[in-house]
Amino acid sequence: MSQKLTLFLFLIFLANQNHVLTQLDDLYFQGFNHVRNNMSLNGAAEIEKNGLLSLTNNSKSILGHAFYSHQIKFKNSTSGKAFSFSTAFVFAVVPKYPNLGGHGLAFTLSTSNELPGAFPRKYLGLLNTTVAGSFSYHIFSVEFDTHKDYDFFDINDNHVGVNINSMISNKSVPAAYFLLNSEKEELDLTSGNPIQAWVDYDSVKNQLEVRLSPSSTKPIYPILSIDIDLSSILNDSMYVGFSSSTGMLTSTHYVLGWSFSVNGEAKSFSMSSLPSLPETKDLLVLVVCVSVGSTFVIILGIAVSFYLVRKIKDADMIEGWELQVGPRRFSYQELREATRGFREKELLGFGGFGKVYKGTLPNCGTPIAVKRFCHESKQGLREFSTEIASIGRLRHKNLVRLLGWSRLRGELLLVYDFMPNGSLDKYIFEEPKTILKWEQRFKIVKDVASGLLYLHEEWEQTVIHRDIKAGNVLLDSELNGRLGDFGLAKLYERGSNPITTKVVGTLGYLAPELTKTGKPTTSSDVFAFGALLLEVICGRRPIEPKALPEELILVDWVWDKWKSGAILDVVDPRLNGEFDETEAVLLLKLGLMCSNYVPRARPLMRKIVRYLEGEVALPELVAAPDVYDGENADANTDSGDECKDHMYFYPQST
Ligand SMILES: *[C@@H]1O[C@H](CO)[C@@H](O)[C@H](O)[C@H]1NC(C)=O
Ligand SMILES: *[C@@H]1O[C@H](CO)[C@@H](O)[C@H](O)[C@H]1NC(C)=O
Ligand SMILES: *[C@@H]1O[C@H](CO)[C@@H](O)[C@H](O)[C@H]1NC(C)=O
Ligand SMILES: *[C@@H]1O[C@H](CO)[C@@H](O)[C@H](O)[C@H]1NC(C)=O
Ligand SMILES: *[C@@H]1O[C@H](CO)[C@@H](O)[C@H](O)[C@H]1NC(C)=O
Ligand SMILES: *[C@@H]1O[C@H](CO)[C@@H](O)[C@H](O)[C@H]1NC(C)=O
Q1: Separation CA 147–CA 480 (nearest Å)
Q2: Domain Protein kinase: where (predicted)?
Q3: What is the distance in A from the centroid of ligand 1 to the CA of 70?
């Protein structure tokens, strides 16, 4: 009966402690995006967009705290005995200068989630000079310390320690971990790479163990083990979380994931399932040694400085934005070597935008194509270079991959995958060495459509190609079609005068509205795609000066043949009639639809891909009424309405 009463009183007690978690669900935060409201942060701590918890940034002498916002019960109120607990978390210390980290972070249990009055630097945001060592303050921490503080008898600048209400560790060991075969391996806390840590307290054995590993697997052996009864150290309920600080030397301290459990084992993290760290930055660290002494040293110093200044000027100092770029930055020297000094012999061709050289990367032997631009405006080049960052992240099997780039003064170099079979125009115009078979042409058209669909609709933002033409379709070793040069036309539109925009593109592929508006759109890309379709089938350029007058403009000629019921007459004679008629009609009709004079009447890439895959039948093509009326024309267009069984075609030259 008295037991029942105790239980009753206990429940009342719990009910009154409404800010205390009574029924603790295990915490398991794989990134902190979904638990923004459950973390109380102060100082420099913040949860970044991708869910990374950063405790500090790269500023000097700052601190950051991140605690789970509710207190957790750590003791049996009746017996006063501390509970067992267990935690696993993945952290990364990214120092501003390689191997010079400051100051570290600590897994912390505390009666306060703000730690008012605490100091940064060697105090790790935990304590200050007054409270250090005072026992009324309940702070228990496991520190991952990257700085050697003589005041606190630190063993080195890369250690793990257990601290009780003090910055002086009760026990500490150099950071390391045990492999499965029980061999000990050193671990650099400031490597910038994610490290997983486990802290397990067993209240039966009165033992605390700490483990570390750069991988997902919890090692069998702890790196630090200490006999300790936390019952007298912990208060009934405590906040649990992390504290960190910087000093003269700085690091960004991240926590990528955190799990915690009372009276159970915390779940480990698979390293690959966590938010990724920001791109690591290569930094030039310039160490200046000042030697005062003989004049000789001074003169030598001056000479060296002149040399360095020249070198730095030549290197065209890496600027902040350049470090954000996704694809890698090559050194100019590296690319010069790769292309053997941009030898004429290595020249693959002239693009509209510059010369293209074949090259081989010095270290790995990977063949590359290097596109070399000169630009009249350094500003334009700079602005454009920021766009390389996003262009470089485009990845699709039908796009030529941008591997990296380099910049030297007014010159920009772009590095692409080398495409052994060159560009499509060499296979269709004039006297090609190889005649592509019908199936190959059909496949290439589908490839280009799928690459363009990705640019228009499937990537995170719409990318307008602006210069689709046979010369920009490259063929890889298996003759798959891949679009090249996406987004580059933008550079040339800007020119030196930011107010005027030049129309960039290639005659015959330029949508008629472009000459008026100058504003490229996805539908002007579709127009150019239509021209490409027709030329691949007909084996000639969109405007052919050598042709008969009625055949001069490809699209008009195809349209006339269509009306007279002799559409197959236009198919490339070099195929010798070896082609699939149904497919040919499909492609020609589609080519005409894309070449519509009215931008909104052109199908979207999504629709085009479905037509090509045979998922949707093409609507009937009907000549537009003689008098062109812009508004009525728009009303009759195919804007995605599946039920319409015909569409009007407005030839370009009326
Ligand atoms: C986080 O907070 C929300 C309410 O703000 C609550 O519903 C949820 O249970 C909390 N999650 C954890 C893990 O504490
Ligand atoms: C870093 O954190 C400090 C302290 O919160 C803040 O004042 C500073 O603006 C932050 N710096 C950056 C670059 O975010
Ligand atoms: C707390 O301790 C008492 C007495 O030792 C014990 O009977 C009870 O089961 C404990 N409660 C918990 C939640 O461990
Ligand atoms: C410790 O817990 C008791 C109640 O369990 C509370 O009265 C006291 O204020 C707590 N101590 C601190 C420093 O928060
Ligand atoms: C140290 O922290 C305590 C507790 O928050 C505070 O009262 C005290 O003023 C701080 N001491 C200094 C020197 O800032
Ligand atoms: C270690 O912990 C105990 C309490 O368990 C304490 O008395 C002692 O002063 C601590 N510090 C060191 C340096 O041992």
Answers
A1: 55
A2: 342-621
A3: 10
What is the number of structural domains in the chain?
3
Query: Per the confidence metrics, is the pTM higher than 0.70?
Result: no
Q: For 224-256, write each residue's pLDDT tens digit.
A: 999 999 998 999 999 999 999 998 888 999 999
Q: State the ligand closest to the CA atom of 80.
A: 3
Q: Are residues 430 and 408 in the same domain?
A: no
Ligand 5 geometric centre to CA of 247 (Å): 19
Share of the chain above pLDDT 70, in %: 77
Atom of ligand 5 nearest to the CA of 115: 5
Residue 417, beta-bridge partner list: 368
Residue 571 lies in a domain: yes
Q: What residues flank ligand 2, with Cβ below 6 Å?
A: 43-44, 57, 59, 62
626 is catalytic: no
Q: Which residues is 88 bridged to in the sheet?
A: 198, 259
* DSSP string of 558-625, one letter each residue: HHHHHHTT-GGGGS-GGGTT-S-HHHHHHHHHHHHHHT-SSGGGSPPHHHHHHHHTTSSPPPEEEEPP
pLDDT tens-digit readout, 121-164: 888 998 887 776 665 678 999 999 998 887 788 888 899 999 99
Half-sphere exposure of 461 (CA within 13 A, CB side): 6
**Are both 191 and 249 inside the same structural domain?**
yes
How far does the centroid of ligand 1 lie from the alpha carbon of residue 242, in Å? 19
Ligand with minimal distance to 136 CA = 4
What token pair was written down for 477?
A: 């070793």
Residue 484's H or E segment, with its range, is: none
Least-confidence region, from 130-134, 590-594, 613-617: 130-134
- Going across the sheet that includes 328-329, the strands are 328-329, 402-408, 411-417, 367-374, 354-360, 347-351
| Structural domain of 14 | 2-268
- Segment 30-59, tens digit of pLDDT: 999 999 999 999 999 999 999 999 999 988
pLDDT of residue 355: 82
What are the phi and psi torsion angles at 622 (to 5°)? -125, 140
Q: Calculate the CA 583 to chain-centre distance.
A: 39
Binning the chain into helix, strand and coil, the percentages to the nearest 5 are: 30, 25, 45
Check 467, 525, 572, 638 and give the catalytic one: 467
Was 355 annotated as part of a binding site? no
> Cα(51)–Cα(35) distance, rounded to whole angstroms?
9
Asked whether residue 292 carries a pLDDT value surpassing 70, the answer given is no
Q: Are both 343 and 204 inside the same structural domain?
A: no
Tokens linked to 405: 């780039």
